[in-house]
Every structure is written in structure tokens, then in C-alpha cells.
Fold these 2 entries.
Entry 1:
Amino acid sequence: MRCQRIQPHLLALVEGELKQSKREKVARHVAACPACASAMRSLRQTLRVVQAIDVPEPSPAFWQEFGTALHQRMRREEAAHQGRRHGQLWGLFRLPKPALAVVAVSLILVCSLPFLGGHLGQQRIPRMILSGGDEVSLAANLDFLKHLDLLEEVDVLEQLDPSP
Amino acid sequence: MTTDDAYGGGKRTQSREAQASPEGQSDFELIDRFLAGDMSAFDALVQKYQQDVYRLAYRITLSADDAKDLAQETFLQAYRALKGFRRRSSFYTWLYRIAVHLCFHHRRRSARVEPVAEVPESPAASAQPLHDLLEAEQRHAVATAIAALPPQQRAALTLRVHQNLSYREIGATLQCSEGAARANVFHAIQKLRARLAGFGEDG
């Protein structure tokens, strides 16, 4: 195999990630090729020095302070979360004034529907029964009808009924 | 897949999930307890992963202060989102994904010149001052070369070399394919090899 085809596999060889058949071919080539053997040594050395670079160790107080600060932030987070849930209930009252007015009017209308409904219902019935000319006739004979009601109440209709 | 041969870190990738908390519980058991209202279970998760997350953030941002803030932010985000964690990956892959995302976001937002990493001093002066000097010089050169890598390659490299994640896990963490994760590590190492050609060839 040529060096160009071998070298991309050197990292996998160093990491032990090549399948056995491939590993044997690459290893055989590296053993016989000074350039690839040198590249392999260079790769190993690079990995070794990279691994040796460590993170500066924080002071002993660091982790204690880290945990304390994290807890404080988590408590604030929890409090804010509860506040948001509480705020959802009262959020209605933080609406802009026009929206709040619309909501208020809607609420008043909804609450007064039962009362309005009865009143409107009484007015609607004659409109459904009567049509055009009947309404005019009804208005003209309103006095008579009032008297008719009165007569019904005192139960004197029979007295007015002409006897045969 | 183990990374023992190259990095000598033991099979941390495979055994990390099984690493028990001080109370002897797996990550998923701790998550269940947390979701049932036990805050101490979340504390156990923080204890278990805080150093890993801090180190990961440090290696990407190259700043101790930023790493501390971002590690805290990572756990805070995890605290908020743990309820929605679907357990399609291991907990630490999910946690690292949050950390890497925050680090990249922080880097984009800060839009500043990359600082050179703070390189830890050697523990003590030895009887080989010349050797120590060369070693210090080498460490500085390596830190500078790593700092010059693109963030995606630097993150992939540290997830592979220092966190011992498999390429599949690196892909899941960086939200790219396994092949892209492999390519990122490969290119990072190639660049480092080129920049560090003068050091340690006696290997």
C-alpha cells in the first residue's frame, strides 16, 4: 500500500480502532516504511504532549464557592419559576388598558345575559308571532287590550258576552 | 470503543455511566430521584460532573473565569431542562452538549482575540533545570498551538483526548456526524503535529 493511503489510518491505528485485517496491513507497511514510521512516532508524541497539558487546578475554596453560587442561582430560578406560575393567574390584570376595558365590558355583558335574556325574550315573542300590519293594529288597540287584560283579571268576560 | 491504546485513560467512556454516585446510584437513578423532588440527587450529579464540565469549558474558552461561569450556567441549564431529557444519550453526553453549546455561544458573543491558555507550572524545581526549561517551553508551545485551533476542532480534540469520549459520543455532543467528529480530531492533530514539529521528536 502507498504511504498516502496509509497515513489517514495512522490515528486509528494508534487509537486501536482499526479492524484486524486493516490493522495488519497498515502495521506491516509502517514496519517497512521509514516515512510512515516517523509519522506514526510524531502522531504518538503529539497525542502525548496534548494529553499532558492539564487545566490549572482551582483552589480548594473554588468548588465550595462554585456549589454555593450554583445553589443560589437555582433557588432564584425556582423562585422565578413559581412567580411565573403565580403571575399567569394574575397576568390578566397586567394587560394594556384597552384590552382590560374590552375584557371588563365582555364580563359585564356575560354576567348580565340572564337578566337581559328574559327581558329580550318577552319582546321577541310578539315579534315572532306578529308581523307588519299586526304590530300597527296592536298599537292602535293598546287601550282596548289593556282593558281586556283588566277584564280578564276581574273575570267579567262572561258578563260582557252577549247572551244568545 | 476504547481509547486505551492512545490516551491511557482507562475505559472511562464505557464505565462513566456505571460510575456510581457516593450513594451508589447511576445517573438515571439520580435523575429519577431529582424528578421526584429530591434536590440532593441533583447535587450528586453536580458533584460527579462539575470538574469534567469545568475542564471542558476551560479547554474551549482558555479562561478560568469564563470556565467557572459557563460550568455554572451548564448546570443551571441542566436543572431547567432535565425534565425534558429523553435519555436517548447518556447524561454526560447531554451535559457536555449543553456546555459546548454555551462555550461556543459565549465565544461568538464575546468576539475577542483568543487568549493564550494559562499553562500550569511544573510542580517543583528539579535537579535538571535545562530539562525543566525545555519542558516548560514545550508546554507553552503546545498550549499556544491548541489555542490556535478552530473551536470545533479544539472541542472535538479535548472530548477525545481528555474526556475519552467515543467518536459517536463526540458527534452527539457537537451535533455532527461520527465521521465529522473523526475528521475534526484528525485535522486538529495534524495541525498540532505541524506546529509542534520541533518538539519531542525523540518520543
Entry 2:
Amino acid sequence: MSKYYSKEVMDRFMSPKYFGEMKDADAVGLVGNPRCGDEMEVYIKVREGKVESASFRTLGCAAAIATSDVVCEMITGKSLEEAVSITEKEMVDKLKDLPHVKVHCASLALEGVKEAVKKYEGK
Amino acid sequence: MKKIYLDHAATTPVKESVIEEMQPFFSERFGNPSSVHRFGQEAVMAIDKARKKVAHFLGAKEREVVFTSSATEANNLSVLGAAGGGHVVTSSIEHSAVLNPCKMSSGSVTQVPVSSEGVLRVEDVLKEIRSDTTLVSVMYVNNEIGTVQPIAEIGKAIGEINKKRKKKILFHTDAVQAANYLSCDVSELSVDLLTLSGHKIYGPKGVGALYIREGVTVSPVMYGASHERGLHPGTENVPAIVGMGKAVEEIDFRKGEEVKRLRDKVIDEITSSISGVTLNGSREKRIPNNVNLAFEGVEGESLLISLDSEGIAVSTGSACASHSLSPSHVLLAIGLSDRMAHGSLRISLGNETTEEEVDHLISKLPPIIKRLREISGR
């Protein structure tokens, strides 16, 4: 097994729980670009100011998929304000560890959440 | 879990016979070749023997071979030590061990583009030659896509141009990825400088060699004592040099036939069992052991990690795992989009690769691609 990623990252990469398009989403945040190799879509369904459910679709490395999955879990049940204030460090802690060069994947996943919330609030 | 190594373009395992040859030179015959006593002279003889083997492989004279600590060092010597600050013509798909010394060179550098097949056109190289050109450096085989460059043709054409020039243009080739399967005869190739690596040919890491045609002046890039004509100052890595000599001696081009058959099986089966896959680089002008495929809707690193979790070791065409986030310069040079470059995988077979191993890869890949495409939604 790869020593490059923590077991937590590998588990989420191999069996993500939150992936898939959400047909009835209230908003979707599209982030990333082909240049850096990662493209993410973060879907949110909002009820009474809280994220009722979240999902993602990610074209990217193992870290991009794992961080997409963990961010969807972390925002579920949170208020929109709480969701957008999650930090990279909190995500890295939850994943136990993330190689330094992959921290930008966590940043991208957070951007995805912020973009989805912005879209929702702009509605 | 069975471990399957399909990353021979990165490095190869050291052969048993090579280890055996090296073994005495660690503790038993450990002398410094600069010493006059018999311990030292034993080491000198061992290096001479290795040099003879490398020279024989290249069709060169022994005094034309210099041992270095890596192919990178040999490439640095060629670009910084032989070009003399003049104009350098090179390709857009060179290894960074040529491109980065070019950046450090005081002279100007022209990178010649390649075709979408990843092969240089001889005339494109020749038209970049100027009156102040001092060096042309073109790799023999590309390390990512395995394409074979027309070295002999370029060498011959430069020879013709040189007939009319007072200051001769030197021709260097980085033959690191070629040596296992293609002739590196320096007369056939008409090269003045040629780089080899120990660890790509089932020899040890930490050793390379540079062929320098007699009469060609190369200046040092590192300074110290007079080891290796002053071009590689520092006590010789005797065991590694001995290992490299043995590894070169044991190169057997006939092994390429079976490797090529397995390579073709990988290409044919994967491109037929999975949709949205294309082969990067020419199929015909290709080294027998290289497969490089672009997969739509997946990213190379996640593919690499998935295969690694199945015990299969391959490499990405993308620089995703390194500090750089930009896609491979080689894949962009052959016209791939950023997305397809990021979705590329290099599978490099070895002389010891078995049909069973190749079949294992062929069966494991489709479900992995399916899963990653579900996650990406593409």
C-alpha cells in the first residue's frame, strides 16, 4: 500500500461516500481547471439555512477525490456560515495527514463549497 | 499481494550477475584508484575493464569514455562543458537534465518542436542551425512516450554541414532510454557525445558514462582533482563503475522482441477493452518497452494510486505528484490538451516482465477506469 497517502486519504479515495451528481441540488459550485489537473463540482441541498446534503464529482488526483469527499461530510448538517468557514487545517486534520504538495486540493474543495454557497445565496 | 513492476523507464532492478561483479569492490578490493599501491592498482584495473566494456558497446576507444556519477552529470558536461557558450539546438521533448543545463548556459538555445507523433523532423533541426551554433543535443529515445528520434540521420546531416564550417558543430545524444534495445554505435549514429546511465540498464544507480569523441574538448562543470580527465573530479565510485561495465556487457538487443510483443499486447488490449483511450507517441518509431496512454475522464495520479493498491507500479505522464502542477512538457509538445496530458499513464516493461504480469494489468485496468469515471462524471 502507498505510504504517500494516509490510510484515511486512501479509504476516502478508494470508497468515497459522497460522490455523484445531485439532480435536485439547490446549487452547484464548479471549481478548478484542466491546467492544474483537478476539476470539481460540489452540490448542496439547503434546508432552513443548513446544508441538508452534499455531494461531489471530481476529475483529479487521489487527494482531490479524498478532499472532495471529506469536505462534503464536514459541511453536511452545518449552517451555510459554518460551512464556508471550514479551514484547510481542519480538513487535513480529519484526513490525518496530506502531503504538503496536495494541500492545494483541500483549498480547491473549500473553494467549491464557497462557490456553491455563493450560487445559492445569489439565487 | 503480487507486486508487478512496470516502471522500467524510471529505473531497473540490478541483475544478480551485476551484483556479483560489484560485490568484491566494497570491502575486499576497496582501494582508491588514485593510490599507487596494489590496493589502488586493483581498482584501476577494474575501472579500465569496465571502460573497455562500455567502449566496446559504443564502438569507441577506451579513452573516449568518461564515467560520471549520473546521466544528468554527463548531460550537464555536454551542454555546459562542450557548447562553450555558443548557440544550442535541442528538442522540445528533452529530459530536464538537458533542458535545465540549457537554461543555465550563457548562449542562446532553440528548442525544435516535434510532430504530433513525438518525433523530430531532421529538416526542422537543420533549419535552426546558425553560424554561432556549437552544439545540437537530441535525445535518442524519449523517456515519457518512448519515441525513437532520427539520431543517425541528424548526425549524418550535421557531418555534411561541418564539412563547410571552420568551427564544427558538436552532436550530443542522451541515449539513456535507448541502450537496452537499440544500437548505440557512435559511428553509426555520427555523434560526438553520448550519455548512458547505469540504473536504466539493470546496473546500479549513481553511475553514468559520457562518450566524448577523440579531439572534442569538454570543460569541467565541477572542479577538483584529475579523476576521469578532470571531468568527474572526486574519487571514482568503483563498485558502481564495475557494475555499469557488467550491465553494459550483458545488454542483449534480442530481448527486445519479446518485450515488444508484450508491449503490443498491452496497447491492443487496453485500447480495445476501454473506450476513450489513445496511444501517446508514434507506434512504429517506439522503443520496445514503452506504452503511454491517455485516458479520457480520469486523472493520471488517481489511476497510478489505484493500480498501486493492486500491486501494479506504473508512472504518470503528469507532474502532478511533483511540486509542479503543470502537465508534462512532452505531452503538451505533441499537442495533447491539458486534460488529456493529466490523464496519461506510462507503462514501461522490462526484460523480466512476464505475460502473466501483463495480463494482470490488462484485467485490472478496466474496472479502475470505470470507477474513476463514475467519480469524475466524465
